[in-house]
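Could you help me review a protein record that somebody else here produced? This is what I was given.
***
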Amino acid sequence: MIIRQKTYSMKASEIDKKWFIVDAEGKVLGRLATEIASILRGKKKPGFTPHLDMGDNVIVINAEKVVLTGRKSEEKEYFSHSKYPGGERFTNIRKIMKEKPEFVIETAVKGMLPKSRLGKKIAGNLKVYAGAEHPHQAQMPEVLTVE
């Protein structure tokens, strides 16, 4: 007699989403981004289903106090293009950290998510704030410690 095991695939109605708050103060950017991406995707949940938005919502505070290792603060640049010939723009990460520190964490996390419609939907579950204040008190987020 052959015993066949069936793989269970969760349905969208069975997904339980939570809210987590992460303090980025003193955390290394890449290590923080990998943990956040894993939570957003839902990879640590036992019923992970790759084609569904299984992950939780994540609030990141103190984005301006994230740490860059090595020589990234001098060498790392972000690229943008105006779609015109010669319209390339390179911006140093130090300048962006002063103007929009949220952009740095959002970009790092989005780069670790799938490049599809699902990835864009998952990226919408990330909220990043430069300071310690955020408007999501009503969701009663759990504090998450990231190494």
Notes: Helices lie at 29-41, 72-75, 93-99, 101-110, 117-123. The beta strands are 19-23, 57-61, 77-81, 88-92, 126-128, 142-144. The radius of gyration is 18 Å.
